[in-house]
Design brief:
By secondary structure, the chain is of the alpha+beta class. It has one domain. The protein contains 2 helices and 9 strands; from the N terminus they run E-E-E-E-E-H-E-H-E-E-E. Strands 1, 2, 3, 4, 5, 6, 7, 8 and 9 form a 9-stranded mixed sheet that branches. A hairpin with a 4-residue loop joins strand 4 and strand 5.
Amino acid sequence: MSVSTYDTEKINTEDYIDTVPGIDIMDSRRFFSEGRNGRFELRAFITRIRHDSRRELFNIGFGVWDQTRQAVDDKIQTRNDDMRLILGTITVIVLEFLQNYPFAYVYAEGSTLARTRLYQREISKILDELPGDLLLYGLISAEDIGFIKFRRGINFEGFLLSLSNR
C-alpha cells in the first residue's frame, strides 16, 4: 500500500480492562497527529463484544486521547489537515489485525454521520491504492440492503473490511 501513515506504538490492552467491561480489546495503538493546530495523541482500538456469538466480528474505533479522563474522544476535530495520514494509519492497523486474524471482519463508522461521510470521501481518494486482498464493503441500512461492495458515489453508514484469502 502506497498510502502514507504515521508510526504507531502498541499499547498494552490490559491497561483498559477495568474501563470497558464486557469488551475484549484485541489491539490498541497510539500515534500522533501533527499539523498546524499542534500535536495530538490518537489511540486506536480493535474490540469485540465479549459474549457475542459472532466471534469473527470486530470494531475499530479511534480518536484523540484525553489524558485526564484516560479515554478516547472521537468527537474532537484536530483540523491538522492530515486526515489522509490518519486514515492510512488506521488502514494499516486493520490490515495487520486481519493478517493475524484472517477470519475476522472489522466494522468502522464515524462518530457522527458527517464524520462517516468524511471518511467515505477520504477512502474514495485512496481506493485504488488499497491492497488487492483487502475487501471493503459499505453499509446501507435503508430497505435492509445491508453491506455491498464499496463504490464511489454511494452514501454508506459504515464500512466492513476483511481479507479475500478467507
